[in-house]
Amino acid sequence: MTANRDRRPPVMADVATKAGVSHQTVSRVLNDHPNVRAETRARVLEAIDELGYRRNMVARALVTRHTRTLGVVSFDTTLYGPASMVYGIEQAARAAGYFVSMVSLKTIDTAGVRDALGYLAEQGVDGIVVVAPQRSAAPALADAPTDIPVVAVEGGHDGDVSVVSVDQVEGARLAVRHLLDLGHETVWHIAGPPDWLEVEGRLEGWRGTLAAAGRPVPEALPGDWSPRSGYRAGLRLARTPGVTAVFVANDQMALGALRAFAERGVRVPEQISIVGFDDIPESEFFTPPLTTIRQDFGAVGGHSIEVLLRQLEAGAEWSHERHVVPPRFVARASTAPPGG
Amino acid sequence: MTANRDRRPPVMADVATKAGVSHQTVSRVLNDHPNVRAETRARVLEAIDELGYRRNMVARALVTRHTRTLGVVSFDTTLYGPASMVYGIEQAARAAGYFVSMVSLKTIDTAGVRDALGYLAEQGVDGIVVVAPQRSAAPALADAPTDIPVVAVEGGHDGDVSVVSVDQVEGARLAVRHLLDLGHETVWHIAGPPDWLEVEGRLEGWRGTLAAAGRPVPEALPGDWSPRSGYRAGLRLARTPGVTAVFVANDQMALGALRAFAERGVRVPEQISIVGFDDIPESEFFTPPLTTIRQDFGAVGGHSIEVLLRQLEAGAEWSHERHVVPPRFVARASTAPPGG
DNA sequence: GCGGGAGATGTGAGCGCTAACAAAAGGGTA
DNA sequence: TACCCTTTTGTTAGCGCTCACATCTCCCGC
């Protein structure tokens, strides 16, 4: 355990000399090759320990042609959704013995994603997960590197890549069905920013479910995921006559809407019912606790790594998979029958 | 732009042949070496483009002995604090031309941190940022690799590394001072989990400020950062006579406490004033909007990279720096004079 | 007592790149 | 014209590791 502070770190040859074997034998020990005598192995391990030797993965990667590193491209990891996804990805990757190299984009645009993919490819990552929930990311995915597997999370459906996602349409359907079943005539909607695929899915599920039930479809209110935008939309809904039920595209905006209703003296759920989306850890403690649709971000992250590893093993001939994670309805206290 | 789908990707020598120059000249073009004729450069660039050549950073790293990758070790990046920190770190690193290799630990313990540091060192990262807010991470930092710079964020103060952190004691002082200035006799405290350095700092600031003002110091209530633990603590406070002001160690727990008070019919801020910590994006929309202490996580992340890069440039002889980011008081609607 | 096969170890080459030096090509001055 | 100096390009030798193969031991069976 001698630390050589200023000298160049020891290499395999140093260990070999010290143990009185060839560098190849050291390599064998390090890689758990079976054909090494127990005594030799012990001698090598001792030398490794004494020198404080640590193998150089860069040199190893040069010859093996893989780095055991996966690239992750993601949008704003400050948000709960992407953060949980990336966390799930990282955990699953490391459990499988892979490192994760991260690129978080401030804004998702085709050029940004393309650059990120290019950089990661240069770095020699073995595979890439792209958390690119916006439509504008799709073109970049279409001409992603073809020599390494790429998996998109919540991504475009047209690219030449595998996709793992939550069933957004179904999530919206669950929310709307719940409100209609309570007896509401129709359901309003505060949407997320346009261009997001999740937003499109939720809009589609909301509209479709209302239409299927023969209910009027109000105009969706715009939002940008932030509590503030939910607050503004809530203010508008509070002064719109006839609103009894709202489906909000995420929990943060639902929080803002809750605040707007509170300020306007609109009681939830007595006068207006509200359902969110995501089920962030805070939702359970909102005033009132928020009924919402749970997305299992961790599972999505985990699945994406599973798919990626499968393709990694398959080598050159992998097929594109599509994996859909179901959302779950979580009943709490923000909904009630109309006029409740 | 020919994609060679199945063939091995082109290497520098291929480009050289195609452009009719030596591989060294290709290398010069790629590295912006000044002494290359404009015409030659153009020819090389054209060949690069035609072959779809991409330089192999692994091979480059082997000879240059640096990877332009920084390692980040962090605790649960699902939490807003760590997530924002890591985001700030990643942004700053990439702006400086560095990649980020992530390891998020599920739990922080000495062995986990030590392993993570070891793995990253093997990967050949040029420097490491450790977001290790727990005391138990300190021993691992003490015997961190000595041949590359390591910066701790919110980390132990005894290790042989640079530290960037928010002034927790001052943050707590701001919160308590505010409540005392409003006329409250004393301030109760819902603490975070023990072992966290931030928790210790906030406890110290809370106790110290009360003591300095000659006020009684109640027993701190335990919490674990989660809204649920804040809820439980809130329930206890609601049935404790004489409580008029509470300083909560983070905003999530404050949310839980708010919920508990609402359920027990305790009005905030009229009957109890409450101050949080962190200023998460949601706080402004709590019921009521939460007065809190803002931590600039992004700035902390950015500073940590600044320090790291400075040490990277300094080469072998770097000195250990200590950088403290001030917290900021954010006034909203959850506090009022007692009996307000 | 000796060929043969399995196990244990060593040898040489090369992954794709950069650093250091060597060589060739221009361009001004004595 | 010869000379030197600068600019441009080429050549060679590794970086630290693994792979493929060669070699050397040892033990078994006939």
From TrEMBL, chains A, B:
Tagged with keyword Transit peptide: no
Domain HTH lacI-type: 10-64
Source taxon at top rank: Bacteria
UniProt KW DNA-binding keyword: yes
Entry's Gene Ontology molecular function annotations: DNA binding
A Pfam family per the record: LacI
Keywords carried by this UniProt record: DNA-binding, Transcription, Transcription regulation
InterPro entries for this protein: HTH_LacI, LacI/GalR-like_sensor, Lambda_DNA-bd_dom_sf, Peripla_BP_I
Protein name in the entry: LacI family DNA-binding transcriptional regulator
Organism: Streptosporangium longisporum
